[in-house]
Amino acid sequence: MHIRPIKTEQDYEKALERLELIFDAPIDTIEGDEAEILSLLIENYENEYYPIEAPDPIEAIKIRMEEMNIKQKDLVGIIGGKSRVSEILNKKKRLTVDMIRELEKALHISASVLVNKYQLVK
User: Fold this and answer.
1) Together in a domain, 36 and 78
2) Mean pLDDT of 69-75
3) How far is Cα 121 from Cα 103, in angstroms, rounded to an integer?
4) Considering the chain, what is the average pLDDT of its residues?
5) Is position 79 within any domain?
6) CB 35 within 8 A of CB 23
7) 2 domain-assigned
8) Model confidence at 1: pLDDT above 70
9) 97: domain CATH number?
10) What is the Cα–Cα distance from 44 to 63, expressed in whole angstroms?
11) Under 8 Å between Cβ of 118 and 79
12) What is the three-state SS of the chain?
């Protein structure tokens, strides 16, 4: 087992190839330990060079709606009437502080996600 830090894209590709070969190695074996260490090195490299951006507030709401099997009509009363819900989800209007508070309670989405800026659609 010869593990090296991942410093370049080429190192990253080699690490991915090696991990693919030993991915199913049993735990507590030399290859199993190597796979565990490679996974950590790969994750660290990906976090630094391929960060995943947080979704904008409206996308976060839509994702949570899907996860919770909630329909648009279920947000009526939480963020306003039927037309207001439509305007918000279609990015025609911005979320208000009161809407953010209600969404945080109802959908369990952090207010810190919901207050982020997003582009309105004209």
Assistant:
1) no
2) 96
3) 21
4) 94
5) yes
6) yes
7) no
8) no
9) 1.10.260.40
10) 26
11) no
12) CCCCCCCCHHHHHHHHHHHHHHCCCCCCCHHHHHHHHHHHHHHHHHHHHCCCCCCCHHHHHHHHHHHCCCCHHHHCCCCCCHHHHHHHHCCCCCCCHHHHHHHHHHHCCCHHHHCCCCCCCC
Burial of 15 (0-12, 13-18, 19+ CB in 10 A): buried
Domain containing 89 equals: 57-114
Rounded to 5°, the CA angle 114-78-83 comes to 95
Tell me what pLDDT residue 122 has. Answer: 83
Q: How far apart are CA 13 and CA 111, in angstroms?
A: 38
* Number of structural domains in the chain: 2
Q: Are residues 44 and 89 in the same domain?
A: no
In angstroms, the CA 31 to CA 63 distance is: 37
**Integer Rg of the chain from CA:** 22
Residue 65 and residue 105 in one domain: yes
Q: Report yes or no on 21 lying in a domain.
A: yes
Is residue 18 within 8 A of residue 38, CB to CB? The reply is: yes
pLDDT in tens, 52-66: 887 899 999 999 999
